[in-house]
Design brief:
The complex is a heterotrimer of chains A (about 130), B (about 190) and C (about 350). Helix content of chain A is about 20%, strand content about 30%. Chain A has about 130 residues and is α/β, with parallel strands linked by helices. Chain C is α+β, with helices and mostly antiparallel strands. Chain C starts with a strand and ends with a helix. The chains are: A alpha/beta (about 130), B alpha+beta (about 190), C alpha+beta (about 350).
């Protein structure tokens, strides 16, 4: 047995292409295995990881956006992304539109608004 | 049919000795290398503070002058990172866990008086040495300044010529030029 | 068409070791829909990256969960090692593999006990945990603690397992295997067990794939996917075939985990024989992590993700741990549809939920 999929492929895509790319990967039979956000240098970096069960491939879609940009929800295509998107929304304050099951920032029941997101926004809301 | 599949095991259990030990009566033997709590050979400690900086939960504190090392045992997660990082290897993990208590509080270990006295003496010696060295340095600097002032007064034309000669000559690093250049600058 | 009502299930429930809440929409005794909600044990471990440097984060990552603590520490360390692009000593890789498999054994035995408890077979529960105790003793002997291993560091491992200890481990896993063989016929053949497990909560292969299930839940539905085949740690040097069942019901999930204990025993034996003798345990790592990496590994509960991003500072920018239970929650909701209310507790247990992991 050899080292199969320890390589990371990160594809940076513009936010408008997100749904298209997700659809393409879904048609290829890959499953969404992870989605997360990071707030780095005043920009959100969203990563959507797709993995292949047979070849153990891993493809990460990377969307880099300003904090104010609206992101389309991928839950229409992949219903199980509900928890990942709610997490991004609650912890980072990513503006995600049209989540199929929106927990309204109550997934983790935290008191703070977007604790890991942009700082000044938190203060304004608090 | 899958009936009475557990019966053999149940019969076996009837004749087996109990798996559990009668704990308070028979004390529990911790295995070798059990990570129970941290202990310190305080006299070997040099107060470098490496353990304080590496502790993930900030439970340690060190005072180099007083020769103390304190730990809040209720905050300690017994990860052993300080033991690994300690440069003098004076920290180690010992058997036995922290027992529950009514209130939190830190335990302070102080170096024995002899070691403290020896350290104090060493420190004083070092301080005296440092003071002497400083004095010597100051005197040397004064002397040098006086010499330079004299040199400047004597050879003002020379310094000017050197300045005009350009920084290139000074940077070239001839020992004389290197010494003279800062003086010229002043 | 019966009367519809909503029943809250959890967060406190006799069958749940950890708090999860489900809103069950039921029609008579049949569950129509289940909406999970978590957040009772959220601790915000990921936000600690601002306050702890990347070496200290090893110990924070490890404390994400008590049961798979070693795997969390290992996943984090491997991710950082990939960013540094260092190759750790082979002996350290094998030691990590042995500890990871011991962790998997104790986790699966714990789960078998919890499952027996969930369907009301208390004796079986005691018996499974009695076997687990031997595994815990091995772990305590080698690392110094029963659950939180704390032997990983970025660049290798801290402790070594001596030749004597390896011999003890080899002997004890054989004992564990023999005892579990006795217990296996109760789990797999006893009619009371079968009547509670067979045909309950079926998740087809397509559903499991679409809902992104991982680990034993996916393997019980026929997806042959085991992240250990990626070859992290020393798994690339060991022979390993994923344990797969096709039925997709509770019984298949039980079978999968039971056989995985044997697989772990086999892997530990292989690792002990193939392990190189004396070698250093860690390579020094200089500087700070600069880069990003997605590390995947197979925990006892399934595939876990560790995303580390650093920018050349001692404090990393982002650590993201995606735990297997998080991925299996949508699968659980699908499983719960059209089941009896009395099976809900059992079904929640069969995905091996680890809620503290999920919420971090």
């Amino acid at each position: 047995m050899t080292n199969l999929g320890l390589k990371n492929e990160i594809r940076e895509i513009p936010v408008e292409n997100l749904l298209n790319e997700v659809l393409v990967l879904k048609k290829q039979g890959m499953r969404l295995s992870q989605a997360c956000a990071a707030y780095i240098n005043e920009k959100f970096e969203l990563s959507y990881s797709f993995s292949d069960d047979a070849a153990y491939e891993l493809i990460n879609l990377r969307v880099v956006i300003d904090p104010q940009t609206q992101v389309p929800s991928i839950t229409e295509l992949i219903p199980q992304a509900v928890f990942y998107e709610n997490e991004m929304k609650e912890i980072f304050g990513v503006k995600i539109e049209m989540i199929s099951l929106d927990y309204e920032n109550k997934l983790y029941r935290i008191k703070q608004t977007a604790p890991l997101g942009p700082k000044q926004e938190t203060e304004v809301k608090a | 049919m899958g009936i009475l599949k557990y019966a053999p095991q149940a019969l076996k259990n009837l004749f087996l000795p109990p798996v559990t030990t009668s704990y308070p009566a028979v004390p529990f033997e911790y295995p070798e290398g059990s990570r129970g709590h941290i202990e310190i050979d305080i006299d070997d400690c040099i107060g470098c503070g490496m353990c304080v900086r590496c502790c993930p939960c900030g439970t340690l504190s060190v005072d180099r002058i007083k020769g103390t090392w304190s730990i809040d045992r209720f905050d300690c997660i017994a990860c052993g990172f300080c033991v690994e990082k300690c440069p003098k290897k004076c920290l180690h993990m010992a058997k036995g866990y922290q027992t529950p208590g009514g209130e939190k509080g830190s335990v302070t270990y102080t170096k024995s008086p002899e070691v403290l006295a020896a350290e104090e003496q060493k420190r004083q010696e070092a301080a005296a040495k440092a003071a002497a060295a400083k004095k010597a340095r100051e005197e040397a600097a004064k002397k040098k300044a006086a010499e330079e002032a004299a040199a400047q007064a004597a050879g003002g034309a020379g310094a000017a010529a050197q300045a005009a000669g350009g920084a290139g000559a000074a940077a070239a690093g001839a020992p004389d030029a290197g010494k003279a250049a800062p003086a010229g600058g002043v | 068409m019966g009367k519809r009502s909503v029943i809250p299930f959890g967060p406190q429930h006799p069958v749940l070791p950890e708090p999860i809440h489900l809103d069950l929409v039921i029609e008579d005794e049949r569950v129509i829909e289940a909406i999970p909600s978590v957040g009772f044990v959220h601790r915000g471990l990921e936000s600690l990256v601002d306050k702890r440097d990347f070496n200290q984060m090893t110990y924070v990552a490890e404390r994400t969960c008590g049961i798979c603590s070693f795997q969390h520490g290992m996943g984090y360390c491997e991710a950082v090692e990939h960013i540094f692009d260092v190759d750790i000593p082979i002996r350290a890789k094998f030691l990590r593999t042995i500890w990871a498999e011991l962790g998997r054994m104790h986790s699966h035995l714990l789960w078998l006990g919890l499952l027996a408890d969930a369907f009301g077979y208390e004796n079986l529960f005691y018996q499974a945990w009695r076997i687990r105790e031997k595994v815990l003793d091995m772990i305590e002997m080698t690392t110094g603690a029963r659950l939180i291993f704390s032997v990983n560091k970025v660049g290798g491992v801290i402790k070594d397992i001596t030749a004597d200890q390896l011999r003890i481990i080899d002997g004890t896993v054989t004992e564990v295997e023999a005892e579990l063989r006795d217990l296996e016929q109760v789990f797999l053949e006893d009619s009371t067990v079968k009547s509670r497990l067979v045909g309950i909560g079926i998740l087809t292969k397509e559903q499991a794939h679409d809902l992104g299930c991982c680990g034993p839940v996916a393997r019980a539905s026929g997806i042959s996917c085991d992240m250990r085949r990626l070859g992290y740690a020393a798994y690339s040097m060991l022979d390993l075939e994923p344990v797969v069942a096709t039925e997709g019901d509770c019984f298949a999930r039980c079978k999968c985990r039971l056989y995985e204990v044997y697989q772990s025993v086999d892997l530990i034996r292989q690792a002990i024989t193939k392990m190189p003798k004396e070698q250093e345990l860690a390579v020094p790592v200089k500087g700070n992590p600069n880069g990003e990496y997605f590390m995947r590994l197979e925990q006892p509960r399934g595939e876990a993700y560790y995303y580390v991003k650093g920018s050349g500072k001692p404090f990393i920018d982002r650590l993201r741990i995606r735990t297997p239970t998080f991925a299996n929650l949508p699968g659980l909701c699908e499983m719960l549809k059209n089941t009896e209310l009395s099976d809900v507790g059992l079904l929640v247990v069969t995905i091996d939920p680890c809620i503290s992991c999920t919420e971090r």
